[in-house]
Every structure is written in structure tokens, then in C-alpha cells.
Amino acid sequence: MRIGILAPVTWRTPPRRYGPWEQVASHLAEGLVARGHQVTLFATGDSVTRAQLEWVVPRPLGESPPDDPDLDQFLHMVHAFRQAGRFDLIHNHLNWQPLLFAELVATPVVTTLHGAAMLEPASRRAFLRFPHRPCVAISQAERDAVPGLDYVATVPNGIELERFTFRDRPGEYLLFLARMHPAKGPDLAIEVARRTGRRLVMAAHIPPDQEAYFEQEIRPLIDGEQIRFVGEAGPAARDRLMGGALALLHLVRQPEPFGLTLAEAQACGTPVIGFDRGSVREVVAHGETGFVVETLERVCSAVEQAVRLSRAACRQRVERFYTVDRMVEGYLAAYERVLSGG
């Protein structure tokens, strides 16, 4: 097939550090190329890919913010849709805005929701204006949260297992690894560390609009000993931090569309302790590869039980459900369904 992958341009594809949508777009493009498909990746000019790279935005908007980022975003979309006739299908990883252009071309456009419609009321309203456009959910929870769309598949995100080192011995510290935002529960992770007496390592990307929150609400709680902040973690650091942890804490306050870190931690053999929000109970097998609970009291109890869980079972769950190969297979089936009119 001739496939156009429309990636975001906030970060490089693949991202140097943070950038979950870009990471999925990268894995998919590389996986499709490996299977012999003709893939064109629309991404930033510094992106790294075996696909044909097309770009109009030279550097990630998140690293080199322009005066008018909306203009750059739309120029990026226009560049892709001008070439729509080259492709059998365009796969959109850039929220709802490309659907405006999809109305003007004959080439089928498939959109992965990536949590936007689930978490953002404005995005949800926009997607619901295009109920005839084929969509892919990344979890059943996402699909259930936004009924009324034309779902052609549910395809969980996949990771490259070889990038995550399995460690059969549990560490002693708890890990918070997420975007710094109240919805991600960094304050709750700190409270769990205090209640259990465990050390907590925090690795987080801090968006510009959350710098004040971090400085006012979180930094005063960091003592550098029991509570330690190590900044944003790139691929090698993520592997090391996850593999060395007793458990990953995922105490989100909002529904989780998927949660790449949940799969990544389990790939290292590290169980996940998370609140029962959205897809957490799908990705984590309660009582086997972690604990899916409802209160901080249950989280604290789960911390003491985490050492008894099989780290091999954590790795095996990812091998079974959350690899790049499984993801690519799921998307190819979705493409075939769209192209056949099914």
C-alpha cells in the first residue's frame, strides 16, 4: 500500500524525550516500511525515519516556538493533503483539524484519536461533526467514552521491546514518570511516598503552562532525598528508571486513554499501581502485573504487595499485547477494512 502518515509537529518523530503521539507515529511508519509498504511520513524536518520524509516545519514547535504556531500546523496539514492523490490512504495522528481537509479529497483518511476526543470537550465536539470519518481508538475505554464515531478498530499502542531491559529483581524506590500536570497526580505520588516511607523518583516533562504549578505546588515538596526530581527522561533514562523501580505510580485524576508508560514499565518487569481511570484496568492485569485501585489507602497497601508480583508476568503481558508488531498488524487490518468499504 501507499500510505501517508500525518504526524504532529510539536516534537520530532521519534521524540527525543516527551512526545507520545510522535512515538506511535514513528513506530507505525517504521513497522509499515519493514513490511514492504510505501510510506511517506509528514513530520518535522529533523525527524528520523526509513520512510520518505516530507516536511515544511523544520524544527519541532515545542523546541523552537514560532510567533504563530497555528499557521505552521496548518501549513503542515496543507502540505500533506496537497499530495493526497499519491496515497491509497492517509493516517492522521494530528487530532481533528485534518478532518477539515479530508472533506476535500477522495483519498480515505483514518484518524487515531490518541485521547483527544476523550479528554478535550472541544475536540470531542469537533470529532462528532464528522461521524462518517473512520477512526481508531487506542483502548476500549476511549471508544466507550466517545460513542457516535465510526470506529473501524481498537488498536492499543505498541512499544519496541528491545528498548526496554527486563530486570528480574525489584528495586526499592517508587517512580512517577509522566507529564507534569495536576491531572497526572504528582502530588498524590508524593503523598504515597510519605505514607509508605518509600523513596520516590520523579521524572517529568514540564509544559510551559505548568511551570507555575510545578514551582508553587510540587517543588516545595521535593527534598532531594526521599523525594527526588530528575527532570525529563529520554529513552535510555526511561529504561533505567523503570527497570530499577519497585513500582510505577500512575495516580491519574482523569480517564487514561492508554498510557504508554504503563506498557513500558511492565516491559522492564516493573508492576504498575494505578487508579481505576479509563484504560488502566485494560493495560494492567490487577493482582498479576500491578494493582488497579480506587483510593490512596489501597495504593499504599499495594506498594507493600508489589514486591510479591512476578516481574516475568509483567514482561509477558507486554509481549502478548503491546508490541509494535501487534500494533502494526492492527492498523493494517483497519486499513484493509476502510479500503474494502467494510
Automatic annotation (TrEMBL):
- Per the record's keyword annotation, is Transferase included, yes or no? yes
**Pfam families the record matches:** Glyco_transf_4, Glycos_transf_1
What are the record keywords, sorted?
Transferase
Q: What are this entry's molecular-function GO terms?
A: glycosyltransferase activity
Q: Which InterPro entries match?
A: Glyco_trans_1, Glyco_trans_4-like_N
Q: Does the keyword Transferase apply?
A: yes
All copies of the Glycosyl transferase family domain together span: 171-295
Annotated Glycosyltransferase subfamily 4-like N-terminal domain ranges read 22-163
Protein name (Swiss-Prot/TrEMBL): Glycosyl transferase
